[in-house]
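Student: Send me a single protein entry containing the residue sequence and its fold in token form, directly below this note:

Tutor:
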Amino acid sequence: QVQLVESGGGLVQAGGSLRLACAASGTVFSFKAMGWYRQAPGQQRELVAVITSNGSTNYADSVKGRFTISRGNAKNAVYLQMNTLKPEDTSVYYCNFELYGGNYWGKGTPVTVSS
């Protein structure tokens, strides 16, 4: 069983930055994709950023140019650098590992951006 734990969320003022991290309980030897999603109260969960096994990335239009996704060399972690944060970025952020053995989710870390 793969367990994912997010960290790095918190309260930040608009225009500030946060770096989210997600670590797997064990080494991931192969994967299809790793990503970050977010879900605000009363809203649907949406894709924020994804990185594939070949290193290609994709971002939601709302965060493109402000957020950067990256993965650890050991393939057991994924990161999300969030810059120029806006109040509308306020949400609970979830990491996702799409592995050949299954699709795994973290429990989420809240991010609050004040105006």
